[in-house]
Specification:
Radius of gyration of chain B: 31 Å
Number of strands of chain A: 14
Distance between the termini of chain A: 44 Å
Largest sheet of chain A: 6 strands, mixed
Distance between the termini of chain B: 31 Å
Strand order of the largest sheet of chain A: 6-7-8-4-9-10
CATH topology of the largest domain in chain A: Rossmann fold
Oligomer: heterodimer
Number of helices of chain A: 10
Number of domains of chain B: 2
Structural class of chain B: mainly alpha
Number of domains of chain A: 3
CATH superfamily of the largest domain in chain A: P-loop containing nucleotide triphosphate hydrolases
Order of helices and strands of chain B: HHEEHEHEHHEEHHHHHHHHHHHHH
Strand order of the largest sheet of chain B: 2-1-3-4
Shape of chain B: elongated
Structural class of chain A: alpha/beta
Strand content of chain A: 25-35%
Radius of gyration of chain A: 23 Å
Helix content of chain A: 25-40%
Chain lengths: ~300, ~425
């Protein structure tokens, strides 16, 4: 039994003169949430569409669930496109059953599963309502339910949380965690970095069609770690031995960012603070940048070049 | 291919519940029945024209040819002189009067006086009145009826074997048969084709298309739609057929409808052409829906296409006078006008079997080609948004090879 849900090998796609995706190369494993990141127009949607066989790559190869995306394999994949779409003039349950059947389910099973999902999403009372009568948030949840109705092994979601309030965001997040727990693979394309930090195991960042960062989210953040520490408390930080520069912590967070001299370590700075009678610390941590910072840096560099 | 049937089933069930479809389904026969009732009513009231309701008519017999023992119809009143009749007219005790002049037997002329116009049935009543009086004076074994109206012809059309009575309304009825078929054809095809186009436009417009094509192939989607809505079209025909049958039987007594004979061979021929015609036009409409993606734009194109099947109507006169002439034959062979041309001709004449076969073959080939081309365009254009497509581009798409599951790169690039 293979543990890989998606294997892409050096895929590329050009639209006329425009190279939408150039040489992207990654794997997605079962039982993980994989984030696909990148600025607008980076090639995320094109990559997803190539995985889903909506468009063919010019170069490279793609395997989904252990082979080509055949009709049978399509039944094991759930997709939530960026542009959400539902039949407006049909009842919620009718539409869910139809879309479930199109994924190879028997009508009865689809109905049962749909009702179960609606219950979970607190939409059971709306099953017989027309989609157009639902609020935008409810439609989003229905759309999510449609994506997973057929118990796929792989789901590909474009911006899973757009249009959802914090409560519903938690509901969907928990469903995704649950899905991962049961061995499913999630590919989520998003701009919301805090969600990636919170949820994703591994990630791929592309910019202008180029693969920029790829690997475990924690590793990538460490890789971008500065030779610096973040401290909160009282004291003249600049007077500490080994501190070359002090600046306010970025992104509006409290505390100060202390840049260290090459021969200094975080341990030596901590020891110096501990020995100083005038300094007090409430917080002391390595300056690991947020994904937001990394995103801005990588995308910014790309723009500058 | 299983998924194709799922789509067909879904499309059928969803659309049969649509209000617009139900209106067409019920509205069209209601309209037809209303028409039949109206015609029946008009014919019935015309049959009563012997007594023109409420009209009072005077007469002056200066020729002295009216006999006493003939019953005078209601409303007829004798006057002894022109002046007396005139006075009655001026006093409005009568609505009109007629004078039989002294030289009537040689001239055959009478004069009718009235203020304003006189109703046509009144003139018929006067003619009847005169004929009855004259016939009463002829010493003949022939019946009065026969003398009054010696010709009661049935026309037997040798080429079609159809027989119609002498009533002018019956002739109208003969022409009605092809018209009924034609109307049914155009309405049924129009309604279902519009549903197909609207469905594609909706799915494209609300972006559910992207979801659908990760579940099944565009060709399955297209074929499923064509089959599902085709079945809907047949239901429509069936309902109309039953209503028509009942309506015809109810109106059987009127001369107008008695001539509406619908022979089984015509029904079979019509059914074959209906199905071919449906697939031909629906494929085109589905393609239009896929390319345009907006209701308004697609209706503009559809408006142009919907004229095509009606072309035979522009030369309807030729179809009546010379149904086997070159123009009707040509229009029968052109697939876009085949169906209606064929049904019209079949109502008026016997069509040589080789023409029927040739026309069906041409239409079948064209339909298959259009469906194939439409599937290609459909597949190519599904994710095409906000872009005007030129005919040259379409031709390239039709000729080019489009792989399964592939939407043209140019289509995506526009986004």
């Amino acid at each position: 039994m293979t543990t890989t849900a998606i294997t892409t090998r050096h895929i590329a796609k050009a639209y006329g003169d425009f190279q939408a995706v150039a040489d992207v190369h990654f794997d997605v494993y079962k039982g993980e949430i994989f984030a696909l990141l990148g600025p607008n127009g980076a090639g995320k949607s094109t990559t997803i569409r190539m995985i889903l066989d909506i468009i063919k790559p010019d170069k490279g190869s793609i395997e989904v669930l252990g082979g080509k995306l055949t009709e049978a394999a399509k039944n094991r994949v759930g997709y939530l496109p960026e542009e959400r779409g539902l039949y407006k003039s049909v009842s919620v349950i009718e539409m869910m059953v139809y879309l479930g059947k199109l994924k190879g389910m028997a009508g009865k099973d689809a109905h049962k599963k749909a009702m179960g999902l609606l219950q979970k999403l607190e939409l059971a009372d709306f099953a017989k309502k027309k989609v157009s009568e639902l609020s935008k948030g409810m439609q989003q949840k229905v759309q999510f339910a449609v994506t997973v109705i057929h118990d796929p092994e792989l789901i590909i979601i474009d911006e899973p949380f757009s249009g959802l309030d914090p409560v519903n965001r938690m509901v969907i997040r928990d469903l995704l965690f649950d899905f991962r727990q049961r061995g499913g693979a999630v590919v989520m394309s998003t701009h919301q970095m805090n969600q990636v930090e919170e949820m994703a195991d591994r990630m791929l960042m592309i910019s202008r069609g180029q693969q920029k960062l790829y690997g475990a989210v924690d590793d990538i953040r460490k890789q971008f770690a500065l030779h610096a520490i973040v401290v909160e408390g009282k004291g003249d930080w600049a007077a500490l031995p080994g501190v070359t520069q002090v600046e306010p912590h970025s992104n509006g967070r409290s505390g100060a960012l202390l840049h260290l001299a090459e021969n200094a370590t975080s341990d030596s700075v901590l020891a110096a603070i501990a020995q100083s009678p005038t300094m007090q610390i409430e917080k002391f941590e390595l300056a690991i940048p947020s994904l937001d910072d990394i995103f801005i840096r990588v995308a910014g560099e790309d723009k500058a070049s | 291919m299983n998924k194709m049937w799922l789509v067909a089933q879904h499309e059928f069930l969803i659309n049969i519940k649509k209000r617009s479809f139900l209106w067409g389904l019920i509205g069209a026969p209601l309209f037809t029945i209303g028409l039949v009732v109206l015609i029946t009513f008009v014919s019935a009231s015309a049959a009563l024209d012997g007594e023109v309701a409420g009209e009072k008519v005077g007469y002056v017999d200066n020729a002295a040819i009216l006999v006493e023992d003939v019953i005078t119809p209601e409303g007829f009143q004798r006057f002894d002189s022109n002046d007396a009749a005139r006075a009655a007219l001026d006093a409005e005790t009568i609505d009109s009067y007629f004078v039989i002049p002294a030289n009537y037997l040689t001239s055959g002329k009478i004069e009718l006086y009235a203020y304003g116009s006189t109703p046509e049935p009144l003139q018929d009543a006067i003619e009847d009145f005169m004929a009855t009086h004259l016939a009463a004076q002829v010493d003949s074994p022939l019946s009065e009826e026969l003398l009054r109206d010696p010709v009661n012809a049935s026309v037997v059309m040798e080429n079609t074997g159809r027989r119609i009575g002498d009533d002018p309304a019956a002739f109208l009825g003969l022409f009605l048969t092809p018209f009924i078929f034609m109307m049914i054809f155009m309405m049924a095809t129009q309604i279902t084709s519009t549903l197909i186009m609207g469905g594609v436009v909706e799915e494209k417009g609300n972006r559910i298309m992207e979801l659908l094509i990760t579940s099944l192939t565009p060709t399955q989607l297209l074929m499923g739609k064509l089959l599902g809505l085709g079945a809907l079209g047949l239901v429509q025909l069936g309902v109309w057929g039953i209503v028509g049958f009942v309506g015809l039987n109810l109106g059987r007594d009127t001369a107008f409808l008695s001539a509406v004979v619908i022979p089984p061979d015509l029904v079979l021929l019509a059914l074959v052409y209906f199905i071919l015609n449906y697939f031909l036009y629906s494929s085109i409409y589905a393609g239009i829906g896929a390319i345009t993606g907006s209701d308004q734009e697609s209706r503009q194109y559809a408006g142009v296409i919907s004229i095509l099947p009606a072309i035979p109507l522009f030369v309807i006169f030729t179809f009546i006078t010379d149904p086997n002439g070159s123009v009707p034959v040509l229009l029968t062979l052109i697939p876009f006008t085949s169906a209606i041309s064929m049904v019209m001709r079949a109502g008026f004449t016997i069509i040589p079997p080789e023409q029927i076969i040739l026309s069906i073959v041409i239409m079948l080939l064209t339909t298959v080609f259009i469906m194939w081309a439409s599937a290609k365009i459909f597949r190519w254009a599904l994710l095409l948004y906000g872009k005007r497509v030129t005919p040259r581009e379409l031709w390239r798409v039709i000729r080019g090879s489009v792989e399964t599951g592939t939407v043209a790169a140019t289509a995506i690039q526009e986004r």
